Amino acid sequence: MNAPSWKDPFSAEGLRDASARILTGTNYRLFFDGVTRQDLLKAYTELHGISQSYPNDDEKWRASVRELIQQSGGGKDNIRYWLIGLGKKTAQNLGLKVSDYPAVFDMMLEEIENYPSHIKTRDIALLMWCGAATLTIRGSLKSKIGKALELSLARSALAVLGLEESDHFQVNIRADDEVARQMDCEMRTPRGMIRMEIGLIGTGNTEVVGDKVERMGKNDIVLVDTLPPKSSMWKTAESSQVKIIQMRNNNPVEELRRHLMALKVEGVHRSELKLEDVATKVEMLPLSVFKGE
Question: Of all helices (H) and strands (E), which one includes residue 107?
């Protein structure tokens, strides 16, 4: 599945399209991976250009890279870390100062040259740069995608079920005396408020689901991307009377409707919502549903 065809997948239009697909069981990672690849290609192209500068003079090439890694600003901060084979967080955790970067770069080249390989030094350096860039870009976009989608998914799922923001639910609830941490959403029931958290979490991060479940109360909801059928989180949530709803390969909106109907939440549509109708209903929602905070 390709990324949205428009230029900005994080626009209201892009988030509406993404929400429509995710709420009908699509793997959101496949949907957004095209966005990630575009950023990777841009970074790889720039790094390749640096690796090919001064093709006939290795000393000038090394000097030019040393100069680059000591520069900052102008959107080049990440590149300076990649050129020493690291990500920003790793460099910070190592306690490196800007004045250390040239020495780290020289050390990297020395290790490359001492390694028995027929691959040229610049080519191996480029591979290391691209590896560092890949970790940075994928990690950054994962966070950006999650933040952008969570509120859009909450708003659109509840809007499709007939609920209206402010009247029936609120999103992006800040921490207060009652709730120790920020919550994605809360909605009103005849007996009080229930909360909903959204975790675009895969099978490799089930501990994050556990953290969310532990923070929820009776009848609260955790929407997850996917969770292994044999995961202990299902039983943990059941014992705490927390509702986990898996989105991928499922009809999460209908499952959410049934849960809210059982709690007699006002405004929820009574009729069953078939999977084939979910995307159409989401796509008909106004773009204001897919705004920021």
Answer: helix 101-114
